[in-house]
Amino acid sequence: MSNANLARFYTSVNEIEAAHGRRSSGFVRLVERDGRLVPVSLARRRHVPVKGMLLAVASLVGFKAFLLMSLGSVGYAGRLELLEEGNALERAGALIMKAGPLTTFMAEQLQILFGA
User: Fold this and answer.
1) Residue 83: helix, strand or coil by DSSP?
2) What is the DSSP-derived secondary structure letter of residue 44?
3) Is the pTM of this model over 0.85?
4) Domain range spanning residue 32?
5) Structural element, H or E, at residue 32
6) Is residue 33 located within the same domain as residue 55?
């Protein structure tokens, strides 16, 4: 009797290991169902890296504010005009680097902070 149970156990273990080996990621979550462990495939979700995108936007706005503070509004506008006269990539850069209200506010705060 115990040999039959042991044989079923090893059969189950072999099935689980075979299913585990077939999976490309190599990870299997085991769920207990009716006293038996059954491999369940994990649903993979692709997600947008929101924190990374916010960090990139914040860094860009900070960089623009620092440039606006150091060059002044007239110098910054002159540099943007030069970019707007260039090729398509430079025009796209000028569109991205255009000073918005947040950038000008941050530049004013940086001038107060650094006393420039």
Assistant:
1) helix
2) P
3) no
4) 2-40
5) strand 29-33
6) no
